[in-house]
Amino acid sequence: MNDHIHIIITGAKEKARTILLSRKKLKLGLALSAVLLCAVVVGAIFSTRLFVENSHLSAQVSAMNLKLIESTQENRHYANRIDDLLSMNTSQTASFEAEKEALVNKTLAEFNERNRLIENVMRNLGVKIQKHKGGPYIPPSESLQEELLLRTDKNISILRRTPLGRPISGQISSPFGYREDPINGKKGFHAGVDMKGRHGEKIVATADGTVIQANTNGDHGRYVKISHGNGFTTSFSHLQAFKVKKGDKVKRGQVIGLVGTSGRSTGAHLHYELALNGKAINPATFIQTADLSKKAPVKMIMAAAAKDKKKISPRASTIQ
Fold this sequence. Notes:
The protein is α+β, with helices and mostly antiparallel strands. Among the domains are: 4-66; 172-288, Glucose Permease (Domain IIA), CATH 2.70.70.10. The protein contains four helices and 14 strands. The chain has helices at residues 23-124, 140-160, 284-288, 298-312; strands at residues 4-10, 16-22, 172-174, 177-180, 187-190, 193-196, 202-204, 209-216, 222-227, 232-242, 249-250, 255-259, 269-276, 279-281. The strands form three sheets. Strands 3, 6, 7, 8, 9, 10, 11, 12, 13 and 14 form a ten-stranded antiparallel β-sheet that branches. The chain has a two-stranded antiparallel sheet with strand order 1-2. A two-stranded antiparallel ribbon has the order 4-5. A hairpin with a 6-residue loop joins strand 4 and strand 5.
């Protein structure tokens, strides 16, 4: 077998040329050409891919730059807005502080006036209001608020524990002092007042306190006695039924029993007694004290004082 290939090339003038090629060299050349062609094709593919990826990256970078520019502009806008708000807030704060100071001063003045009215009424009723002395010196401008709060704590506590107003709505039918006994007709001392009432009418406490008796008590019939913790006691006789028991804590206006005619009684009524340090006193003055300032009811004065107290201080009341 011949290992060579003869290639004959004929020209235009019929001259022939013969090229002698080795089969091995031809195969090698074809193989190298194929490898080279493959390399060129692969390189073209990678180049195209890189070009496309670079184009995408460039587009993304451009978009990010645009967003960054927009974000910077927006941040500048917000910064300017914050500066404007801070400026407005400063002026509003100054205005608010001025209004707050005016309100506090007005409240303190009203607060002081109500305390004065409360103390005047308590003195008229014979209730002593002690003024404590001592403690560190504090300039008046700094201590006024705290002084008023403590003063009001004390005054409201005194009010709550001072028997004021009516235990029932009926009028006094038999006064305090010496009278003719309605049963035996003899003259005797009446240690309380009798008040007209209906069977089953609600009887309310006239001050805060603790029930120390709730039982049947001889001539008094069904009987309730309350200690108010400041020397005052109140008692209620001839009840039809109890609504409290011994040891109960009661508030002014709380129902403690019902009007009846138990015990030594000629008909439905309430016998109401008031004592100070064990000595019976006339409850009529306390019943008739329907207001403190001669303008507003007791409950309204107490409610207004408590409301003012909350206005000038967030701390809780110390009244028990």
